[in-house]
């Protein structure tokens, strides 16, 4: 053995940052090793956008007028953030079931790094997903009409939604512990994704269904970003529609406030 | 023994999962610089013990020290001096072998260059250098296992825990693991390995703790454990199956404990005290009764038989793992408390040799 095997010195904070980055980089290396997986992941929401935009779009009417594709793009942006939960869940449950989490826990690394790394990697992935979708949307004639400031606020709300999904995903991954149960998760996530105002305005639905759809946390984000982008279809007289900007912040923050401590507790309980 | 000479010391270690008791007052003592085998059947509590010692699991009771450090109160310090190789390979499937080792190296806080160099060394050593760039998902089971072991060795740990390191390995990979363990020991490290293979404990371990139902039921060197069961064993193979009861009866007269009978191989075997006297007396009796003998063997007991004698039942995988057939020939209903103990010896719950 020729290599000197001494750990470098450094403060706790320095190592928390460095270890978090090492775990983040692990995901970046996954993407580099398996670029096809990454690309398929980016293309999937674009496919939904194209399908609904061109296949069904002709038959859709936006109340109050306006182009359906202008209406659709913000919805799919939010939907792609929602589906991110599956990636987070798969990554967390795979590590737990394969014993990788245990190996990390038996090492002298910062305890926070596993979660920090997961967070940063997933948020980078979310930003890439948004960028790809925005390019596709622009190509379809979508655009933002209220200037760059509100547009960035809209992207901020989308990432906030992804952050909420991240913590739900981490918690479910720690609870279910098997990557195979992602199927069960999909059965849950898809209806939530579709029971929203992504593809159709709630006004066009039966009263009770419209209410359910308006209370779907994702719908708040969609309405809010339609407003911020200046895209059609964000109006409405209900309280939820009137306060969508507020609710687009409140819902995700509530979810993080609930699932962050639950996840921490679950993580601690791995040692029980 | 001064406690500073002990790399691992557990006292009254307890762990329950719901209403299932996995560790029930487990006392382990591992001398620094030795290889210690923890031998036990499926569900004995081996993995649980290793998980407590490697800070992954909090015990419900008792204390555990590794390198003098308390695994609960000084967990962070313990993690700096241990290496863990769990029962199932714990590596990232989507990374290559090299990428895995470099990542773990960085997480052990080696510098970038040191982590890379160390990964290279370990890949060489475990014959993974050629495949070091393939993702682990394309590795065979043996390669994964070797990579897992390499990951546990990154920091050259003072105390290494190996949980059933050779289960499911081909003979060549198994030999490599054995060599690595021997080398580590020569380098001054302490190794605690769990195993269901008695042969493995016999071959590698300086000391053995036999555990069953979460308790240590016997401890000592492999040789001491063997001598506890009886100095020698005699196996008689008869030509006609009908003679087997007669042979067993003859054996019973000279043996220290009831004979094991295996009709399939027409063999009766039992531990004996004085080998020569027992053998000549046995042959005289058999001759007088007209029992035709095909073969007689005088031999040291295997650890399988040791296990059987110490715990009252066969070691979990020993029969299936193909060590010797004798454990499989244990009489049904022997029960765990049935006194199949050492000849003339007591059958106390725990024996210090
Ligand atoms: N997470 C758990 N929840 C409930 N029971 C458990 C859990 N882990 C282990 N057990 C039980 O505790 C006992 C000891 O298990 P342990 O895994 O420590 O045994 P082992 O000696 O490692 O067995 P094996 O040779 O099969 O690996 C077993 O009866 C097992 O079923
Ligand atoms: Mg086990």
TrEMBL record, chain A:
Q: How does it sit in the membrane?
A: Multi-pass membrane protein
Where does it live in the cell?
Cell membrane; Membrane
**GO CC annotations, alphabetized:** ATP-binding cassette (ABC) transporter complex
**What is the first-listed, main subcellular location in coarse terms?**
membrane
Can you cite a GO biological process for this protein?
Answer: response to antibiotic
Among its keywords, does the record have Transmembrane? yes
Q: Does the keyword Transport apply?
A: yes
* Pfam families the UniProt entry points to: ABC2_membrane
Q: Where is the ABC transmembrane type-2 domain?
A: 36-270
Signal peptide start-end: none
Keyword list (alphabetical) reads: Antibiotic resistance, Cell membrane, Membrane, Transmembrane, Transmembrane helix, Transport
Q: Which InterPro entries match?
A: ABC2_TM, ABC2_TM_bact-type, ABC_2_transport, Nod_factor_ABC_transporter
> What's the domain of life for this entry?
Bacteria
GO function term, MF aspect, one: ABC-type transporter activity
Membrane-spanning parts: 38-59, 71-92, 128-145, 151-170, 245-264
> What family does this belong to?
Belongs to the ABC-2 integral membrane protein family.
Its recorded name reads Transport permease protein
Automatic annotation (TrEMBL), chain B:
| Residue numbers spanned by region Disordered | 319-353
What GO biological process, any one, is recorded here?
A: doxorubicin transport
Q: Which InterPro entries match?
A: AAA+_ATPase, ABC_transporter-like_ATP-bd, ABC_transporter-like_CS, ABC_transporter_ATP-binding, DrrA, DrrA1/2-like_C, P-loop_NTPase
**What spans are recorded as compositionally biased (Low complexity)?**
319-330
Which cellular components does GO assign to this protein? plasma membrane
> Which cellular compartments is it found in?
Cell membrane
Gly residues bias: where? 331-344
Keywords, sorted A to Z: Antibiotic resistance, ATP-binding, Cell membrane, Membrane, Nucleotide-binding, Translocase, Transport
Domain ABC transporter span(s) in chain numbering: 8-238
Which Gene Ontology terms cover its molecular function? ATP binding; ATP hydrolysis activity
The topology of this chain with respect to the membrane is: Peripheral membrane protein
Which protein family is named in the record? Belongs to the ABC transporter superfamily. Drug exporter-1 (DrugE1) (TC 3.A.1.105) family.
Q: What is this protein called?
A: ATP-binding cassette domain-containing protein
Record organism? Bailinhaonella thermotolerans
């Amino acid at each position: 053995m020729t290599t000197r095997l001494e750990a470098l010195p450094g403060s706790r904070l320095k190592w928390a940052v460095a270890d978090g980055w090492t775990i983040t980089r692990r995901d970046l290396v996954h993407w580099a090793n398996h670029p096809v997986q990454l690309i398929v992941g980016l293309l999937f929401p674009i496919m939904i956008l194209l399908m609904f935009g061109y296949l069904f779009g002709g038959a859709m009417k936006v109340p109050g007028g306006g182009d359906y594709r202008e209406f659709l793009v913000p919805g799919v942006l939010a939907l792609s953030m929602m589906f991110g939960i599956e990636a987070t869940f798969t990554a967390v449950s795979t590590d737990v079931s394969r014993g990788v989490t245990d190996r990390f826990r038996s090492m002298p690394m910062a305890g926070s790094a596993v979660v920090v790394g997961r967070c940063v990697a997933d948020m980078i992935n979310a930003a890439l997903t948004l960028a790809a979708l925005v390019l596709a949307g622009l190509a379809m004639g979508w655009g933002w009409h209220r200037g760059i400031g509100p547009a960035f606020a809209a992207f901020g709300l989308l990432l906030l939604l992804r952050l909420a999904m991240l913590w739900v995903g981490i918690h479910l991954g720690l609870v279910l512990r098997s990557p195979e149960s992602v199927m069960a998760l999909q059965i849950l996530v898809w209806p939530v994704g579709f029971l929203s105002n992504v593809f159709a305005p709630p006004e066009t639905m039966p009263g009770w269904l419209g209410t359910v759809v308006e209370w779907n946390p994702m719908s708040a984000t969609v309405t809010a970003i339609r407003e911020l982008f200046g895209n059609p279809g964000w109006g409405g007289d209900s309280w939820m529609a009137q306060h969508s900007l507020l609710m687009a912040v409140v819902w995700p923050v509530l979810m993080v406030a609930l699932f962050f401590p639950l996840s921490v507790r679950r993580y601690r309980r791995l040692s029980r | 023994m001064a406690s500073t000479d002990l790399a691992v010391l557990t006292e009254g270690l307890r762990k329950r999962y719901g209403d299932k008791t996995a560790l029930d007052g487990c006392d382990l003592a591992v001398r620094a610089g030795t290889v210690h085998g923890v031998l036990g059947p499926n569900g004995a509590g081996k993995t649980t013990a290793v998980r407590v010692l490697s800070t992954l699991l909090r015990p419900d009771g008792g204390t555990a020290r590794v390198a003098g450090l308390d695994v609960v109160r000084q967990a962070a310090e313990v993690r700096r001096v241990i290496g863990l190789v769990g029962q199932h390979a714990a590596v990232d499937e989507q990374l290559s072998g090299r990428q895995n080792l470099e990542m773990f190296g960085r997480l052990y806080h080696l510098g970038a260059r040191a982590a890379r160099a160390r990964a290279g060394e370990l890949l060489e050593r475990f014959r993974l250098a050629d495949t070091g760039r393939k993702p682990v998902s394309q590795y065979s089971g043996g390669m994964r296992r070797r990579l897992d072991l390499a990951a546990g060795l990154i920091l050259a740990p003072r105390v290494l825990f190996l949980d059933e390191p050779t289960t499911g390995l081909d003979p060549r990979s198994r030999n490599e693991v054995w060599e690595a363990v021997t080398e580590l020991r020569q380098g001054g490290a302490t190794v605690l390995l769990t195993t269901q293979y008695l042969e493995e404990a016999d071959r590698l371990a300086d000391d053995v703790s036999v555990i069953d139902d979460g308790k240590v039921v016997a401890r000592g060197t492999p040789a001491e454990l063997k001598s506890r069961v009886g100095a020698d064993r005699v196996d008689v193979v008869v030509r006609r199956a009908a003679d087997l009861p007669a042979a067993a009866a003859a054996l019973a007269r000279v043996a220290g404990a009831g004979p094991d009978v295996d009709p399939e191989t027409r063999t009766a075997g039992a531990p004996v005290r004085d080998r020569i006297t027992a053998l000549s007396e046995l042959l005289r009796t058999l001759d007088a009764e007209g029992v035709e003998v095909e073969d007689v063997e005088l031999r040291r007991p295997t650890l399988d038989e040791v296990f059987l004698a110490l715990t009252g039942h066969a070691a979990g995988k020993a029969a299936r793992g193909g060590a010797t057939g004798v454990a499989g020939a244990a009489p049904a209903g022997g029960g765990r408390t049935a006194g199949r103990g050492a000849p003339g010896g007591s059958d106390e719950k725990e024996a210090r040799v």
